Amino acid sequence: MAKLDLNRQPMPAQDPEERSRNFNEVALGYRQEQAFSEAQRCLQCKNHPCTEGCPVNVDIPEFVAALRSGDLAAAVVALKRKNNLPAICGRVCPQETQCESRCLVGKKGAPLAIGRMERFVADWALAQNGKNGKGGVDPSSLPLPGCGSVAVIGAGPAGLTAAGDLARMGHKVTVFEALHVPGGVLSYGIPEFRLPKHVVKAEVEYVKSLGVEILCDMVCGKAFTVDELLEEFGYDAVFLGTGAGLPSFMGIPGENSNGVYSANEFLTRSNLMKAYLFPDYDTPIIRGNRVAVVGGGNVAMDSVRTAKRLGAKLAAIVYRRSLDEMPARREEVEHAEEEGIEFHLLTNPIRILADEGNWVRGLECQKMELGEPDASGRRRPAPIAGSEYVLEVDTVIMAIGTSPNPLVPRSTPGLEVSRHGTVVADPVSGKTTKEGVYAGGDAVTGAATVIEAMGAGKRSAAAIDEYVRAKVAALG
Ligand code: FAD
Ligand code: SF4
Ligand code: SF4
């Protein structure tokens, strides 16, 4: 397989923002003629099962029909009627398991490249300066008669979707975000080369243009509580879209050594605090020379590819099962292979070795073999006695999963959480055990996907709309 020359990728632009924009986005976009020709393949199926495969129910034949007739403005309107963040989804949706998996053309060949067409149309809209596809009302008129005000906690995909939809329905919506920028994982987790931050920024601006107010640096559970929002600040309902940002560690010896990161911290330093633009930005990050990333999911792939771009000579994945069991998307694994990432499969870390200054100097691993399937249906890895060896590394990044931060549940009496720390909520409406409080996205499901979080935000928005209208009507 051809290797990508990483040294050729970073652009020499002087402006840090420009350099950030160019930081190696892998060019997967369609050109106009490709998008038009792909759209011709759509059968315009009467029942369009593709739409059912999309958690926000984009009317796919409608936007594709507009695209193939050359009416891009109409295609944008069709897309944005259901999807507030199409340029983001066009880049990061796992389409192969969502809309594209249901496409009837796919029964006898390649399904329609719905995600790529979506990205093309959404990028065209961004190039028009976001003037197209605006479906909101005059923000100054919110709330409309019969509507109320809603607080949304967390400006990730779940919160932004719920907020945008509720504003469109006529409610006054305020989003409270703990970090200094909105976007959630879209901003702090997914790297620039997969999802440029100017795209996230532009789609957040679009959500704001629908009438949504976003307040950053506002930590719910510290600066204010859910009860205060409902009882003192006059909100009629609250939506919790606080994600699952609490990293897990393995609990092996040496994990507190210098040079051990959680994937979240590593990616946040690189993406959000722009450590990769040092010295223009002075965020410290250890630019490991030999980096091991523990885990086999998309977060592990993003971490290892980021480490490589930050200059690591060795950037390796250490995963305890085989390639077949790896949860990362196949295309992410292929990109990592193309970029020269090493894969240490059927390998489990058992100890982190450090020097006298407590800096990482190696990762002691043990080889594994696969046994019978476990509860997850994947074959259970078992250690091979006497197979221990040391992988010489100076940085270890743990990408073995995350769970929801307990801050909001602990400060909200009456809000039930599961034993995994996820908020207990109705899977359709997002209604929680506390009156007037709804929840969706990773905070409820545990770590999942952008489009699933958006689907949950959309369903909750519909339920909150009904709840608030009934409450406002009852108050006369
Ligand atoms: P989040 O995106 O986590 O947003 C939650 C927001 O709530 C955050 O901004 C957080 O700061 C804020 N918050 C938390 N607590 C509080 C509080 N107390 N007060 C105020 N605000 C608070 N999915 C895909 O579909 N495709 C991908 O390619 C993909 N890649 C990924 C790569 C990485 C590195 C990671 C970590 C995840 C990836 N995912 C991907 C998963 C996807 O990003 C998440 O499933 C999705 O972002 C969940 O959305 P959310 O809105 O529920 O939560
Ligand atoms: Fe497919 Fe995602 Fe677009 Fe829905 S939002 S149509 S799942 S690419
Ligand atoms: Fe077009 Fe495929 Fe959807 Fe049919 S299922 S409408 S061919 S995208």
Helices and strands in order, then pairings?
Blueprint: H1 16-22, H2 32-40, H3 49-52, H4 60-68, H5 72-82, H6 86-92, H7 99-102, H8 114-127, E1 149-153, H9 157-169, E2 172-176, H10 185-188, H11 197-209, E3 213-215, H12 226-231, E4 237-240, E5 246-247, E6 260-262, H13 263-272, E7 290-294, H14 298-309, E8 314-318, H15 330-338, E9 342-344, E10 347-354, E11 360-373, E12 379-383, E13 389-391, E14 395-398, E15 402-403, H16 407-410, E16 437-439, H17 442-445, H18 450-474
Parallel strand pairs: 1-2, 1-4, 2-3, 4-16, 6-14, 7-8, 7-14, 8-9
Antiparallel strand pairs: 5-15, 10-11, 11-12, 11-13
Helix pairs in contact: 2-4, 4-5, 4-8, 5-8, 6-8, 9-18, 13-14
Flavin-adenine dinucleotide (FAD) binds at residues 92-94, 153-159, 176-179, 184-185, 189-190, 218-221, 241-243, 245, 267, 298-299, 302, 405, 407-408, 441-443, 447-451, 453.
